[in-house]
Amino acid sequence: MPLLALILRTASTYVATGRAKNGKNRFAKNPRLADAEAETKMKITDVLRAEHAVFHNLFDHIETVVPRSNTLAEVKALAAVIEKVHAPHSKTEDDLFIEPLEPYFDQMGQRETFHAEHEHIEAALGKVQSARTVKEAKKILLNAIAASRKHFDKEERIVFPLAERILKAKTLSALGDEWLHRRKVSR
Predict the structure, then answer these.
(1) What is the reported pLDDT for 111?
(2) Does the pLDDT of residue 130 top 70, yes or no?
C-alpha cells in the first residue's frame, strides 16, 4: 500500500472511530457521545487537511535534501514522488471540493485561480523531468514546492473555512465518503 494511502487510512480510521492508538474509545465515558460515534464520518475538509499535513512533511524533507543533491537523477526522483502524490490530491480537490464551491469563488473573482494554481504546480513538477542541469532542476522543484505551500496556505485559511460555513456537514461527510470510495480506502 502506498505510504500516503496508509497514513490517510490510519488518520481516517482514527477520526471515524474515535479510537486512540491504545484502542480505547474516547467516547466511552459519555453515552451520548458513544451514540454519536456510529454517525461520525470524516469530512472532506478533514481528509484534505490530513493530506496537506503529509505534503508539508514531504516538502520539509525535500527542502532539506535538494540543496545537498549532487545528481540530476536524485532531483528528478524527488520531483516524481511529489508529482505522483500531488496529481490525485489535486484531482480530488477539483472534482469533489472546488466544484461545489465554484459559484462562491465566482462571486469572489477566484473561480479560475484554484484550477490554475493546480495546473501551474503540476506543470512545474513536470518541467523538472525535462531539466538538463542539476541547478535548473533544483530551482524548478523548490519553486514548485514554494508555490504548493502558498496554495495550501490559501486553502487552509480561506477555502476550507468557507466550505465548512457554506456546505452542510452531511454534504462534507458525503464528499469524504466519496474520497474514501475513490481511493478504495476501507474503514
Answers:
(1) 73
(2) yes
Check residue 69 and give its pLDDT: 96
Cβ contact 117:147 at 8 Å: yes
Helix (H, G, I), strand (E, B) or coil at 25: strand
**Which amino acid does the sequence have at 133?**
T
Q: What pTM was computed for the model? A: 0.75
End-to-end CA distance of the chain: 15
Q: How far apart are CA 173 and CA 16, in angstroms?
A: 11
In the chain, the amino acid numbered 18 is: G
Could you tell me which CATH number the domain at 42-183 has? Answer: 1.20.120.520
User: In sequence order, what are the beta bridge partners of 25?
Assistant: 19
Digit-coded pLDDT (tens) for 17-26: 444 444 444 4
Closest listed residue to residue 179, CA positions, set 59, 55, 48: 48
Cα separation, 179 vs 86, in Å, equals: 15
- List CB contacts of 33: < 8 A, sequence separation 6 or more: 27
